[in-house]
Amino acid sequence: MRSPLADRLRPESIDEIVGQHHLLDPGRPLRNIISSGQIPNMVFYGPSGVGKTTLASIIAKQTNRTFRKLNGTTASTADIKELFAELEGFTGINGILLYLDEIQYFNKKQQQTLLEYIENGSITLIASTTENPYFYVYSAILSRSTVFEFKPVEKDDVIMAVERAYKFMEKELGVEITVEDGVAAHIAYSCGGDVRKSMNAVELSVICGKNGNDPISITLETAAQLTQKSAFRYDREGDEHYDLLSAFQKSMRGSDPDAAVLYLARILAANDLPSACRRLMVCACEDVGLANPQIIPIVKAAVDIAMMVGLPEARLPLADAVILVAQSPKSNSAYNAIARAMSDIEAGRAGGFPRQLQNKHYDGADAKVKGQFYLYPHDYPDHWVSQQYLPDGVKNARYYEPGENKTEQAYKAYWEKIKKR
Which of 22-26, 41-45, 122-126, 147-151 has the lowest mean pLDDT? Predict the structure, then answer.
């Protein structure tokens, strides 16, 4: 069976790799390291389809090392031992470059077995991961490695790869391939910076149009049908998921309704309704809060409607709520207040209760002054009377500081007036 187009057209040199200019352009650190031939242990961190595996194989070739590849999802301890056995043979003379894909799936013991060989230089490790290595890779490996972050390939770079792929297939098949204007750009945009995905789209479009030895015509309609679900990345357990939710909430917090609606659309396109609802409610409480307290039940009602009707209709009440949150005045005074209070709780400063607040109406024999002495606020003018409510250890603490918005300033003025009497 023939290998995928992405493998048949895999670059043979660094200059053929599209994207990653921040790493591979002349003068960049990684490019200089490769040119020196002194290859350290490295971790390639970034999304799939952006050249991590390709670059590792090119490095092995340029440095005359034996290239071996293991995948963290399938490799066993036996596979690792077999790799070590090669070091004693002919293939291990110049050293082995091990490309360990998805290293985050290797357990601690498996990663530890690599350390001895990494440290003595007999194996050069290039590990790759789509997850943040500082969260998912064991510190012993990280401390012996240099981390390089790979980024999604820019649209213009992917267009070059798509055009090259069509020319390659035209030569490979021996038939004329005509590509309608806009096809390459559409595929480049829809692949979400994943070159491998764009190669798959190219190959599928050619297969769809093939009819014996007749010329092949690739239309924009065909390209659109093949890429309609490819325009973004989304992994509910990975970094992309949390990056998207972070961007969603920060856009609402930053009062940018356009960005907030865009990120909402991306979340809903992945059918992740619960995450959109949860972040929306959190933002209403954390970032709008007391500046517009009526927004909390409004957002809750919108979320209830969304969960009741489901997708696709859920996008309507959620869009209403997201725009409302983004456009509302902002205050994080309640967030700061509870954070300060939690800090005192964790530090052990806020134990006990003032006697007048306790739910008991008698005193022990050790009490010097007996009686609860609770003052009932409703018995006093304006339903307020001065008495201690905070525990003795923090009796002078100030957790809540009113925000500068109209609502909180009105409350502040009201209570300042009453407490001065």
Answer: 122-126
Highest mean pLDDT among 116-120, 298-302, 309-313, 385-389: 298-302
97: nearest Cα among 130, 131, 73, 62: 62
CA 129 to centroid of chain Cα atoms: 13
Looking at the whole model, is its pTM more than 0.85?
A: no
Lowest pLDDT segment from 28-37, 53-62, 220-229, 315-324? 220-229
What's the rounded mean pLDDT across residues 159-172? 88
pLDDT at 1 over 80: no
- Determine the angle formed by the axes of helices 295-309 and 273-283, rounding to 10 degrees: 170
Q: How far apart are alpha carbons 165 and 267 in whole angstroms?
A: 31
Burial 50-72 (b: 16+ CB within 10 A, else e): bbbbbbbbbbbeebebbbbebeb
- In the beta sheet, which residues pair with residue 179? 218
The residue written with tokens 């509302």 in the block is 328
- Cα Rg, the chain, nearest whole Å: 31
Ramachandran assignment for 99, one of left (phi > 0), alpha (psi -120 to 50 degrees), beta (any other): beta
Q: Residue 89: pLDDT above 70? A: no
- Tokens for 221? 């309609």
Q: Residue type for 60, please?
A: A
At residue 38 the predicted structure's pLDDT band, cuts being 50, 70 and 90, is: confident
